[in-house]
């Protein structure tokens, strides 16, 4: 059964924790549970243990629901509207389209709270992100970097402390420590583990608890944690499931090299029947490559882009756990606003994650966000608008 530690995998109504299915999420009083009867991959009669596993997965997803209707209960109203006139800058690896799109969403959303948003790309290396971070700290009040641990950014952390700047390191497990300085972690804490747990149960349902997955991600702690923890949940809950994880370099995103890595891994083990992607950029265009290679495997994952959802809509993919840029941008703004409101470090680990299936996907571009009125709900929390 789901562990108590990973609350978001539990029912939204009972736990009200946010980040559920998709881990990244939370409490809601009523979520659409359509998609629980999604056709599974396995054929033939199930063994007793497989049927028990499938029943557990169905119950899990029915209880938590698939499409959140409210923001996490833990996101309470600020004590006052955010101070206006600040500049928030997000750094992103230029080779990753999803990250670039998120940066633009933050730029677009910042004026809602009276801030100016900026985006600054780097080449994917630790050296360049450190250089660009110091540059951004020179003209920003808030700087956001995703996926790199505090140990890799010591000079920018010191510079942020000295210059009175809030530095937020997203999608990592390191706890934030000071304001100013490293004071916030949007999508941090146990967010990745929550997503992994949701992914594991969705995978179990989609494969009739007979899934053998090759998982692929980028060399980022949150994505590695998602893949590794998903494997742990499957090992504990599904005796006929397995998952192994492979990193793909940033430089290979969007290139034939990434596709070749996926195809080669699947060809290396005939028992593999599922390709799981911890970030959708790596799965763009994978379906024709799999067909050309004669590979009959299901495809799914987390953090989809529009092309992934288009494949889902064509019933070519099994499921995607949504981390849409619109919601992620709001969570970044919200985490920063909470740090500045309280003057204390904040781990922004409450996130309403939708589970997209062929049965409930309504839009592929833009990627649908749930709750659908999330902007109005956030404006109420921020006391603006």
UniProtKB/TrEMBL annotation:
**PROSITE patterns noted in UniProt:** PROKAR_LIPOPROTEIN
Q: What is the lineage of its organism?
A: Bacteria, Bacillati, Actinomycetota, Actinomycetes, Geodermatophilales
Indicate whether Signal appears among the record's keywords: yes
Signal peptide coordinates: 1-28
By what name is this protein known? Substrate-binding domain-containing protein
- What InterPro entries does the database record attribute to this sequence? Peripla_BP_I (IPR028082)
Quick check: keyword Signal in the entry? yes
User: What keywords does the record list, in alphabetical order?
Assistant: Signal
């Amino acid at each position: 059964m789901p562990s108590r530690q990973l609350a978001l995998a539990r029912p939204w109504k009972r736990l009200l924790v946010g980040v559920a299915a998709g881990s990244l999420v939370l409490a809601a009083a009523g979520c659409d549970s359509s998609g629980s009867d999604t056709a599974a991959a396995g054929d033939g009669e199930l063994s007793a243990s497989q049927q028990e596993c499938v029943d557990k997965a169905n119950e899990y997803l029915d209880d938590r629901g698939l499409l959140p209707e409210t923001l996490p209960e833990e996101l309470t109203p600020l004590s006052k509207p955010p101070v206006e006139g600040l500049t928030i800058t997000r750094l992103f690896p230029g080779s990753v389209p999803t990250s670039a799109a998120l940066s633009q969403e933050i730029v677009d959303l910042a004026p809602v709270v009276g801030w100016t948003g900026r985006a600054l790309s780097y080449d994917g290396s630790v050296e360049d992100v450190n250089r660009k971070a110091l540059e951004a700290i020179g003209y920003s009040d808030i700087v956001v970097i995703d996926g790199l641990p505090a140990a890799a950014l010591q000079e920018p952390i010191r510079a942020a402390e000295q210059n009175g700047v809030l530095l937020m390191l997203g999608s990592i497990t390191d706890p934030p420590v000071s304001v100013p300085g490293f004071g916030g972690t949007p999508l941090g804490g146990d967010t990745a583990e929550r997503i992994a747990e949701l992914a594991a149960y969705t995978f179990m349902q989609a494969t009739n608890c007979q899934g053998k997955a090759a998982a692929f991600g980028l060399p980022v702690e949150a994505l590695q944690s998602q893949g590794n923890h998903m494997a742990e949940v499957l090992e504990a809950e599904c005796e006929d499931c397995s998952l192994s994880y492979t990193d793909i370099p940033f430089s290979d995103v969007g290139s034939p090299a990434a596709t070749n890595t996926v195809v080669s891994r699947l060809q290396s083990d005939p028992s593999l029947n599922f390709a799981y992607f911890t970030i959708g950029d790596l799965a763009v265009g994978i379906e024709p490559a799999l067909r050309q290679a004669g590979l009959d495997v299901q495809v799914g994952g987390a953090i989809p882009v529009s092309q992934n959802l288009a494949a889902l809509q064509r019933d070519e993919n099994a499921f995607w756990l949504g981390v849409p840029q619109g919601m992620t941008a709001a969570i970044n703004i919200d985490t920063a606003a909470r740090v500045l409101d309280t003057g204390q470090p904040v781990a922004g680990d409450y996130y309403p994650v939708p589970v997209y299936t062929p049965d409930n996907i309504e839009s592929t571009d833009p990627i649908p966000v749930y709750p659908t009125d999330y902007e109005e709900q956030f404006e109420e929390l921020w006391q603006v608008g």
